[in-house]
Amino acid sequence: MMQVNQELQQALEELQVVKEKLHQAYEELEQRVTERTAELVMSNVLLQQEIIERQSAETALRQSENLYRQLVESQTDIIIRIDLQGQITFANVAACQTFGWKQDEFRGQSFLQFLHPDDLPQVMESITALGSSYYTLTSCERCALTVNGLRYFQWNAIAIQNDKGEVVEIQQVGRDITEQQAALHDRQLAEAALRQSEEKFRTFSENTHAMIWIGSADSFYPLYISPAYEKIWGRSSQGLFEQPTSWVDTVHPDDRDRATQSIEQLLSGSQSISAEYRILRPDGSIRWIWNRGFAVYDEQGKVSYYGGIAEDITERKLAEESLRESEARLSLATEAVQIGIWDRNLIANTCVWSASMGLLYGLPSNTLCPTVEDYFNLIHPADRESVAASIARMIEEGKGSTEYRIVWPDGSLHWLNCKGQVYYNEVGQPIRIIGTNRDITERKLAEQKISEQAALLDIATDAILVRDFQSQILFWNKGAERMYGWLSTEVIGKDLHEILYPDGTHQQLKEPLKSVIESGSWQGELHKVTKSGQKIIVESRWTLMRDSAGDPKSILTVDTDITQKKQLEEQFFRTQRLESLGTLAGGIAHDLNNILTPILAAAQLLQGKCFQDEELSRQLLTLIESNAKRGAALVKQVLSFARGYKGEPTIIQVQYLISEIIQIAKQTFPKSIEFSTVIPEGIWAIAGDTTQLHQVLMNLLVNARDALPDGGNINISVENKFIDEAYTRMNLDAKVGHYIVITVADNGIGIPPEILDRIFEPFFTTKEVNTGTGLGLSTVLGIMRSHDGFIKVSSNVGRGSKFDLFLPAVEATPVFKIEDLDVLPGQGELILVVDDEAQIREIATIILENHNYKILTASNGIEAIALYAQHKHQINAVLMDLMMPEMDGITAIRTLRKMSNQLQIIACSGLNSMDVFTQAADVNVQVILSKPYTARELLNTLHHLFRG
Q1: Integer CA distances (angstroms), 726 to 71, 319, 721, 736, 805, in order
Q2: H helices of 243-380, where?
Q3: Is the pTM of this model over 0.70?
Q4: Which residues is 723 bridged to in the sheet?
Q5: Is there a cis peptide before residue 932, judged by omega within 30 degrees of 0?
């Protein structure tokens, strides 16, 4: 009996150890198993407490065994005990069912055979670890091969020790978590998809030009604002998060009610809203916004949040506004210019037209389009057939136009122009024709009037012609036929340049053409030629003609023959110059005597003993040369002033013009008169007639001299001046542009105010009888006006007078005098020198032979022709004097031209008159050399003649 008690006591102790181990395992399982398992663990704890309290080993053991058995067998989790070699020593019902073994057969099997091969290394490590004293419990997830295939289990393993503390077995509790793993995997996939979706949304929202917004369901607080907000609104997103209602303040005051009402509609239950409104940016600019919002609902049908897209539609709004304005302008334009638009359906034979079309037919505005039959009743009976044919031709050709008359209800007759364009379907069948009708009644009346006026134009004495911008003649009246000798049938369609302008005169057309294109008109003088070759001067007036679109299309020209007028004017100017020359005669004689005196004295000395002194000889020769040049210059200036050079406009450097006049004045005016000039650098050039401008300055200087009876000062100054529009309004003779202002001022007796306004009247003079004609200042005024200039005069009695000459400035290239060029020798050319003065032939021979030229000389035209006939192939050029006895130079040149048209001829003359230059030009002379000429001038002339 005692022995039985001892065994029982030992069993109780072992049972007590097992209970403690199980209690520890239950506590771990309590955190992992379901609520039902937790209740069982709790029951086990209560049972354990009851066993301890009762101290009844047998009852406790019996209850404990029953409790343990029930607990283990009722578990849905797998409970398996294995030894340290992995052999199964115990398995509950759930384990047997899971792996498909009976309970008695399951014992002794190797647990490792049910595990996935990939997990075996970790399982062996875990068994080894549990076998040591350092680890008592492990938890892991492993795959196991069951009757239902591969399943995932959550394993909790605990080491079971004997009374010596040695691990003898390992108990494992496994829970099937395959469904949980699948759910976890699905959740991970869903989370990955969600992250991907969020990333796509973020990428889209951050790169789209529209602003995407999300607001909370309860307070409409912003949950998300895309970066486009800052670009469109020009404000920070952070500021909107901090002050959610601040977006209302950014809306234009006139649009705030509309913007807030749309949000209130969304909050009150509308599924979506759409509103357009303006916002104010911080920089003051205004942008148009199109905001669309919508509500997002959850599964219960409640609003989860609000979302929307706000897009900048400013460009679209501007385009719409522009389109509306364009349509309004088109409507106004069609009414203003009396144009209607129509559209005819060729399949249905119906037609619609614009609101303005009825007005063209004398009907009220917005009159509906009549039928095609009624439409033809509006056309003049005589034109209906031609209109029908024109429309048929439009349909056949694809487009076209026609003009016809219509009769208004009030009986008045009007003209319409109809243009149409045909449109086709995909098989090429004409389906509609669209066009415009325009009232051309005024144009037709104007054409009729023009036709009547054309007859009047033929009566006019002036030449009236029209040319296009390719210089083709479009119109030529009877006056043009009478003036130029060409019939209209001969010149219509021909080049105007070939008909009216000889070679070398095309340059004069550049400025008129530029002016008429820029300002619409031009007036001035032109040199032209008639059919017979006669040269005439015309006062020409050009007017730019435009087409119906306002584009330049042609130039109307009206020419008045002023050849005789110009000749009379030239005679008048020459008479006036001779009058001025008479006042200078005494001074000229005095100056010529001063020039000739040293020449005569030096010549006498050279013939005497002084000729042996080389140094003195050089000084005397220099003196002779200097005075000879001075005398030649004086004679040239006098001849130029008295007779006049060729009167074609040239580019003139003002400083040279003034220096020449000052030189004459100094040589002829009393020594008591002093001259001063102020000519700064950079003075612009002018275009004009040098002789006439000489005359202007000389007349003013003579008047200034007469205003200084006791001597005084005459000042000539020049300045550049730009005249603007304000100046032209104060001076009607001025035009906007750049001018050269030449001022001639004296400190003489002045002009009384009562006669200051009359000084430019012809024949008005304050001088004594036989001392002046009164034409000086009137001549000055006429010349200034012919140069597009004007004059301003100011004077104070006793203090002097001042004349300001305003002349238009032009661009000019620098002019180099011949004296500034190097003297270049010849290359053995043979020159025929023809002059009746032996001394001139002698000096020309010396100059040319000393510079590598060969010379033949003749004393008149007959000898020249004989020598040229003898040495025709050797002579390279002829130096021909124009004034010779027996045969003059012009006749000799004409004869030489018949012998050789290629001969190079240089004409020489001591009379620089207009007639000389005109005659030389008529016989095609290459160069005209004025006497007296210098060696440098002669040599450089030949060089340019031979070598350009």
Answers
A1: 119, 42, 14, 9, 19
A2: 246-250, 256-267, 314-336, 357-360, 372-377
A3: no
A4: 737
A5: yes
467, two tokens: 């040319």
C-alpha to C-alpha distance for 483 and 529, rounded to whole angstroms: 10
Q: Which residues does 73 contact at the CB level (< 8 Å), separation at least 6? A: 92, 93
864-916: per-residue pLDDT in tens? Answer: 898 998 998 899 999 988 888 778 888 888 888 888 888 889 988 766 555 55
**For the residues of 662-700, what is the DSSP string, one character each?**
HHHHHHHS-TTEEEEEE--TTPPEEEE-HHHHHHHHHHH
Lowest-pLDDT range of 312-326, 404-418, 600-614, 709-723:
600-614
Secondary structure class of 326 (helix, strand, coil): helix
Query: Cα–Cα–Cα angle for 820, 823, 825, nearest 5°?
Result: 165
CA 268 to chain centre: 55
- Give residue 741's pLDDT band: very low, low, confident or very high (50, 70, 90): very high
Residue 937 neighbours by CB under 8 Å, 6+ apart: 818, 819, 929
* Strands lying side by side in the sheet with 473-476: 473-476, 463-467, 552-561, 535-546, 521-529
Give the mean model confidence (pLDDT) for residues 917-928. 73
- Quick: pLDDT tens for 566-619: 776 666 555 555 555 555 554 455 455 555 655 655 565 565 554 556 666 666
Task: Give the pLDDT of residue 119.
Answer: 79
pLDDT digits (tens, 9 = 90+) for 349-383: 888 888 778 888 888 877 888 887 788 888 888 88
CA triple 893-899-902, angle to 5 deg:
80
Cβ neighbours, 10 Å, residue 898: 9
**Best CA proximity match to 834, nearest among 747, 772, 893:** 893
Residue 402 pairs in a beta bridge with 418
Quick check: helix, strand or coil at residue 126? helix
* Tokens of residue 570, six digits: 């030239």
Extract the tokens encoding 921: 């030009």
| Residues pairing with 908 in the sheet | 881, 929
For all residues of the chain together, what is the average pLDDT? Answer: 78
Residue 351 DSSP one-character state = E
Q: Is the previous residue joined to 512 through a cis bond, with omega within 30 degrees of 0?
A: no
- According to the model, what pLDDT value does residue 920 have? 67
Write out the E strands in 562-655: 650-652
Q: Report the alpha-carbon angle 729-733-736, nearest 5.
A: 60
Q: Please report how many Cα atoms fall inside a 13 Å half-sphere around the Cα of residue 422, on the Cβ side.
A: 20
pLDDT tens digits for range 213-236: 888 887 778 888 888 888 888 888
Cα 577 to chain centroid, rounded: 55
Residue 753: other Cβ atoms inside 10 A: 10
